[in-house]
Batch of 3 targets.
Target 1
Amino acid sequence: MTLNIDQGLQSKAGFRGLRVAAKIVESSLITSFHLEAADGSALPAFRPGQFLVFKIPSGDPKGYVLRNYSLSGSPDDHRHYRISVKREPSAGPGLPVGLSSNYLHDDVCVGDVLIADGPRGEFVLDEVSDRPVVLFSGGVGLTPMVAMLHALANRSARRALFLHACENGEVHALRDEVNGLISQRPGLSAHYCYRAPSAEDRIANRFDSEGFITRDVLQSLLCLDDYDFYLCGPPPFMQAMYQTLRGLGVAKDRIAYEFFGPATVLDSEVKPKPVAPTVNATPVPAVGAITVEFSKSGIVAEWNASAQSLLAFAEDHGLKPEFSCRAGICGTCTSRIISGEVSYFEDPLEDLAQGELLLCCSLPKTAIVLDL
């Protein structure tokens, strides 16, 4: 079924038509889509770790839903993008299968045109750093890590370990590509951990450890050094790996991460109490100070730029707004602004109704009152 880019899906300047140049099965669950500009032009460069946002046709009132897929190919290829998509099964009896992933797997063919925006995202490889790198991934979370490995293999002399956990060899995607990249130069290595390897996996010696990635496994792989760690995968994997690294003494600012699945909070440590927020009062701000009031919670506090977004500022003050992407895309953190003005450091992907804002990518310009 061919998507026509004139059907109204390409409604914003940032969205473009991407033609499927190849569709390649990578494992029993994951298929890659190689994409090129529908108009034949060169594609915008991307930083390893970034993603594209796709408009997937649906029965939604808008006619589509938005879905993010990480770029899994080489950032040095300016003619093609690649996304590698896991077919999402039903979460349980009577529940639907993943809408967008099954649409891509079952209905999209070579020659079809998809509508996408991007590249987007701040979960990217720091290519300025000269520290050694550890790329942790679980399941389909390996996709941005493969793009990072391409950059490390071709642009850098840094040591890097590609550490991947999955069920078994049947679902393990992009293995040959990763092995080819780590063979390109000294200093690159990979470790594969299978939770339930098959008899064929054992015979072919496809994995390096079995079960889960534990503290002991990490200590056996990593010599004493100051690493940059990158994590990507489903929430249980992310939480386990983050807490293991923290338990080994890894500083928070050495761990970058992105969720595949519902976002959650990785750090179980109690945050320090904010400095004297005023409850049920309206403080007089100092010159140049900005106050943020959460009207439902009765909290008024002076804005602290270290929070980096209104979502983070709300969390710092004990509120728990809903969120998912933290990138101005999904709309989960939409809130009502009662008064004041905000600015966006990442433009929302879609227009908001009057009086609404996205907490995850906005900052206060003036004193504001939020309906939280």
Note: The longest helix spans residues 142-155.
Target 2
Amino acid sequence: TEIQPLIGSKEGILHISMAFLNPGDGVLVPNPGYPTYASVTQLVQAEAFTYKLLPENGWEPDFEALEAMDLSRVKLMWVNYPNMPTGAKATMALFEKLVDFGRRHGIVICNDNPYSFILNEDYLSLLKVPGALEGCIELNSMSKSHNMPGWRIGMLATNPTFLQWIMQVKSNVDSGQFRPMQLAAVEALKADQTWYAGMNAVYKRRRLLAESILKALGCTWDPAQSGLFLWGRVPENGLDGAALSDKVLYEANVFITPGFIFGSQGERYVRLSLCCTEENLAKALERVNTLK
């Protein structure tokens, strides 16, 4: 009554939005952040109100700035910790602030949480905060946590009332994931800490290569980042993230993601993916080192 399997967690963003929003309602969306939060908000004819995430705040919401906003139409707030694209880690202090903020303003807090098991020692959930279940929703995805992209296995967790509202939407959209996929996911969930340690050992080796690529490009990064990506700040006296990405693509035949696609706060950043094999990352580093 509190957990709903999803055909990938991405569909949950749409189902939640359709269940909780009417045209003209407001939604708090992070900048930088996963673009789907804003695009789905637009699809359901609600209005996205962006809130800035800044490095000086540890890429956490500025609650003073949020309190100063007109929140009268806001029904949902999307958060994503551990964060993508910035790699900022989740903390219980942050989750407690979010639960309190949502409770006081009648805003449903939705935490998109697929990265907690990747290069991260603290497996935290928004729903660990006492009382959070009453007004919060959390999404997760086995694409990230168990290396199962394409299997489309995700889930959301919330209180039974919210779950019923979401199911009124979902049950009219699909009839659930293919059962053998779900049974395979059950087996994957039985993995012990040894398996996770092995997975993270691979990501650590890839991370070192990704850091070398950023260093070769003159970028800086926070070594405390977690998750499946590496977020690097481009030099102040050089190209912005988009121009640097183009240069690397056209002159070195290596694709890196320009930070602007995650919002205006990402314009001075680029993102590298740790989904690449060590072999491909080493090739990318070799090519980047030829840039002038």
Note: The chain has two domains: 3-188, 193-288.
Target 3
Amino acid sequence: MAKQKYYAYFFDDKRNGIVESWTECEKIVKGTKARYKSFIDKVVAQNWLDSGANYERKISSTTPINTKLEKGIYFDSGTGRGIGVEVRITDENKVSFLETLPKETVKKLLKNTKWTVNEFGNIYLGANRTNNFGELVGLYFALEIAKIIDCPLISGDSRLVIDYWSLGHFHENNLELDTISYINKVIVMRKEFEKNKGVIKHISGDINPADLGFHK
């Protein structure tokens, strides 16, 4: 039986709330710049609203899952600010690697792309990208950073990218060419990473320190 989820939406301090189905939430937020997010605990959902509905959340004592985060690299993608897709890559303490790595290293990571690091320490991909593409790019850069800092653990909350695309399970007919290109890069990089005893794990969006947005 699926767990009950709660869907919080936020326009401003006076107009916000929590509903119990995605269908109801979608009707409220569709076509707007409202922030929205799902939770498995209603109290945590209310805390999120009370704190201003910030996407870069701190993992706190109100998090309902008793999970100690392992030292590693965490990635996520989101569109919650209403400006396009952003990718966030952090450590277990939600500190962005794009803000702690040397600037020259970050410059090399983004070489041959048109992407930039925004004021939030995230990679901004633009308004014409999908969230799934952002998750894919997140894993790509997480693998690149893992080589730089010699980290054996990468975690994210995208089943599609972790359990399918990066393992070679995808349909070319349904995807854009640059998405296919990054999938193929990630497939090779993941094989090399795991050959060297690296581990890629799926975790819940509710405890992902890189969490940027909504999880249906």
Note: The chain has seven helices and nine strands.
